[in-house]
Amino acid sequence: MGKTVMIVDDSASARTMLGLTLKGAGYDVVEGSDGKHALSLLDGRKVHLIISDVNMPNMDGIAFVKALKQTPNYKFTPVIMLTTDGQESKKQEGKAAGAKAWVTKPFSPTQLLDAVSKLVLQ
Amino acid sequence: MNEMQQAEQAFFEEARDMLRQIEESLLRLENDAQDVETLNSLFRAAHTIKGSAGLFGFDRIVAFTHHVETLLEHLRTGAIGFEADLAAALLSCADHMGQLVEETAAQIVDPGTEAAGGALLGRLESWLPASAKVAEPQPGSSSGHELIQARLWHLTVAFGADTFRNGMDPLAFIGYLSALGDVCHVACDAPEMPEAEDFDPETCYLRWEVSLQYAGTKEALAGVFEFIRDDCEMHITAPDAAVGEWVEILGRMKGEAQRIGDMLVGCGAVTRHELAAAVAAQSGMGREAPPLGEVLVAQKAANPEIVQAALTRQREQRGEESRFIRVAADKLDALINLVGELVIAGAGANLLASRLKEPRMLEATRSVTDLVEEIRNGALQLRMVQIGETFSRFRRVVHDVSRDLGRQVHLEIEGADTELDKSVVERIADPLMHLVRNALDHGIEGPEERRAAEKPEQALLLLRAFHDSGSIIIEVSDDGRGLDRARILEKARERGLIAPGVELPDEDVLNLIFQPGFSTAQKVTNLSGRGVGMDVVRKNIEALRGTVAIASTEGQGTTIVIRLPLTLAIIDGFLIGVGNSSYVVPLDMVVECLQLPGDIAPACNFLDLRGEVLPFIRLRQLFDIDAPPPLHENVVVVRSGAARAGLVVDALMGEFQTVIKPLGQIFRNLHGIGGSTILGNGEVALILDVAALITLAMNADAKRAPSQEVVRAPGTLRTARA
Questions:
Q1: Which of A10, B116, B439, B598 gives A56 a disulfide partner, CB atoms 3.0 to 4.6 angstroms apart?
Q2: What CATH homologous superfamily does B151-317 map to?
Q3: Comparing C-alpha atoms, which of B593, B582, B690 is closest to residue B634?
């Protein structure tokens, strides 16, 4: 059975593109449009990895990770933050919140898959 | 429409939405420049466009939006204020982004759009703080030095206690490694594992050792662990071959001297992260902090060789001037002289200590002696200069002379950086000039002759210097006509230098041109091709305790090989005694030692050494020493060039490192003595001028009637190599 990756991004096209990339590499994909929406999707289903954007309306990536760490079944789920070059402070904030991995935008699909395979054993 | 195309369509739709949002936000900000939520959404829109475009590989949109995003970031953080001009510029930017999106959707590139984009960015420049102007989208960085061959790397990773809590899976990293290279060996252990009651299942206690066959950079390998680097302890041991390559890359580094850390990162030996960690550790150590190279070695980030190589390279790059100090030659000479005195004084102390037989004293003097020897070698090294300058002088000579003679000659210089004693360099210039002129005058043929001999018209003259077992060799070669042995032999017979009917080995024939008198006949000189002052050349070189040899192939050229000692200040001597006096013979001139046969008449001055006549000199008589001879006198057989003679002495006292002290001016006409030295006990010993003594012995020998019979040495002749 494939591993499940959750994508949290407010951009529908980014979600689609990330989804295509991950599905192409054999992962199952769950999409959340922002932090709040993503939390509502974490209803007990098995998620092996979460990829989250930082800048999102409603609940941004940092707040989402902080909330995630308080959610019993998901507090040890690894998170990859999608950060932007020049936003070093955001990256540090994300790390402090518990998102230890990151990919810097703009990135190619290969760069993302690279980061994913460092965290999820296939 | 496939999934990919659908996704792209979704992106274009979304981008159009975002651009509309940007437009609205900008208009809203014109009314209220402080609206934080609007500023944020403005930034987010540009950010989203850039991020998604990057994902789809729409680089034109990414590149332009990047600059807009940077500006909006500054606007959002308040680094710059919102103003009407800026709003107008940003609206134009939004329009331009729209244009880029439409062109990308239609898969066209309009050069006009590109130009307009450049102009817009120029307008934005004026609002950007200086520090932000360098910001460019960073593609995935690579250090550029790709190793080609797979080699065995070794990694040790002690995962941090929070690894599991952070959602990290050690196995995933090992799995990732196997995608990078060939994992040959994995060992896992847990030295920190507590007793069962203290065990925390959420804590990671694991340590992994991995051997990996890998063909990439250290930076890339360390990159595998970038997500856990802050929490884990990791060491990467590079294969030796990679270290060698790093040293090579260091050697090729050009330009300005860099900081040591940058050099190490540049060649790939240290990762950026390791450097940052070392710099942090160093600044944490305060004023007493060790150099960065040492910190890196201590942290096992770099091995000592590569740090040393980088330091050496750095020194090299800091420019030639700072590596040399100009020192007046007389200061240096004074130092060498003092070192000579030190050697003598040290030997004196040593002698005294061995007489006193006090072990602690002996030990102390011995270590002083060792140090003195090092100082002596170091001091002599100071006088070493490169021969290149002397060689280069001949460029002009070769140019002028070959033009005068109407010959084309190419001068080639090899080993210009070979070092030898300054005084030797000064005194070798004249003999070399002689040899070079000879080669040009007589060795190298005219153009017609060369053409006839099917040689290239341009002749080659080669000056070459190199070190060979404690000596320096200087060669002067030409590709001219070579020496005519038959003519040399003929002329030598004519001049009575060799008896008629005597056949000489090839080498000896060539050596005839070094004979005094041979060269004086101009006619012979021109015929033989060589000989102008060759005896003078040889004398000069021997005065430097050197030798000269000649090799020649008719029609192909001649090579003169000069062998010189590295220094004139100190020689290996052989100490001999006559009465109460001591003398030193340069060791390389001593052939053998034997006992003087007891039955030789006091007036006789030659003996039979294995069938050959050996003239000898009694030093007792020569120096008028008033002491009774011992029961058995000894003969030291010495040679200079091909000539041999014996020196009759009382005692053979063995090898002795001799510091040469020149004799004063008033002794300059003294024959048979070349200098003086001081022995460990403070006594003065004279250094014999062997070449002069041999001449003296030969002349005395020549006076004896040809008919006189050679006295045969008894069969019990005792011989011993010195």
A1: A10
A2: ACT domain (3.30.70.260)
A3: B593
Contacts of A70 in chain B (CB under 8 A): none
Q: Do B227 and A106 touch (CB under 8 A)?
A: no
What ipTM was predicted for this assembly? 0.84
Chain B residues in contact with A120 (beta carbon < 8 A): 169, 172
Instruction: For an interface test with B, give the residue of A62, A75, A100 to mutate (most B CBs within 10 A).
Output: A100
Chain-chain contact of A78 with B57 (C-beta, under 8 angstroms)? no
User: From the list B14, B138, B172, which residue is nearest A118 (CB)?
Assistant: B172
Class of domain B391-565: alpha beta
CATH of domain B570-720: 2.40.50.180
- Strands of B35-172 (E only): list them: 151-158
What is the spatial distance between Cα B516 and Cα B535, in angstroms, rounded to a whole number? 5
Q: Given an 8 Å threshold on Cβ–Cβ distance, is A13 in contact with B173?
A: no
Which residues, 6+ apart, have CB-to-CB distance to B505 below 8 Å? none
pLDDT tens profile B255-310 = 666 777 887 887 777 888 888 888 888 888 777 778 888 888 887 778 777 888 78
Tell me the whole-structure pTM to 2 decimals.
0.47
* Angstrom distances, CA of residue B260 to CA of B58, B284, B304, B306, B471: 39, 19, 13, 11, 38
Among A20, A75, A105, whose Cβ lies nearest the Cβ of B51?
A: A105
Measure CB to CB from residue B54 to each of A106, A115, A122 and give the nearest one.
A106
- With contact defined as beta carbons under 8 Å apart, do B121 and B67 qualify? yes
Query: Which CATH class for the B3-132 domain?
Result: mainly alpha
Question: pLDDT tens across B428-437, in order?
Answer: 888 888 888 8
In this structure, are residues B633 and B595 in contact, taking their beta carbons and an 8 Å threshold? yes
CATH code for the part of the protein at A4-119: 3.40.50.2300
Of A17, A78, A98, the CB nearest to B52: A17
